[in-house]
Specification:
Elements (H helix, E strand, L loop, with lengths): L10 E7 L2 H12 L2 E2 L9 E5 L6 E7 L11 E5 L2 H10 L8 E4 L2 E7 L5 E6 L14
Parallel strand pairs: 1-4, 5-8
Antiparallel strand pairs: 2-3, 3-4, 6-7, 7-8
Pfam families: Glyoxalase (PF00903)
Protein name: VOC family protein
InterPro entries: Glyas_Bleomycin-R_OHBP_Dase, Glyas_Fos-R_dOase_dom, VOC_core
């Protein structure tokens, strides 16, 4: 389908949170996401962009009873997982040790203030670097 509309799509991952203001602050201060000011009409929704990445964002949805994690993990692909992990630790984010899962792929996990699981991924050398993910 997307090949039929090459200039008319984007990807937004929805994350349910308990307190929109606290969550916006956390994603902004801890991860460096930028609030998109065009999404302020609905008090329960904020959309945040990842600097330098077009057509991809996260949407924070305030819910009194956020869904529990069903196994999904929104993952940030990074060039150097050890450096990314150290940066998060310096920002007081608890991050799991890096796990080499085989084939050159490394993963680490952390949670936001609502317990939503997030991940870091370092691709194998034969896989695309972060700035080429999605370019095919």
């Amino acid at each position: 389908m997307l090949n039929l509309i090459p200039d008319e799509y984007a990807f937004v991952a929805k994350i349910e949170v308990r307190d929109i203001k606290k969550s916006v602050e956390w994603y902004s201060n801890k991860l460096g996401f930028k609030v998109d000011p065009r999404f302020t009409e609905n008090p329960q929704w904020r959309q945040l962009n990842m600097p330098g990445i077009k057509r991809a964002a996260i949407g924070l949805w305030e819910s009194k009873t956020p869904a529990t994690n069903g196994g999904e993990v929104n993952t940030i692909v990074v060039k150097d997982i050890e450096s990314a992990r150290k940066e998060l630790l310096a920002r007081d984010v608890e991050v799991s040790p890096v796990d080499d899962v085989g084939q050159g792929v490394k993963l680490a996990y952390f949670k936001d203030i609502d317990g939503n699981q997030l991940g870091l991924r370092e691709n194998a050398s034969h896989e695309p670097p972060p700035n080429q993910v999605g370019d095919i």
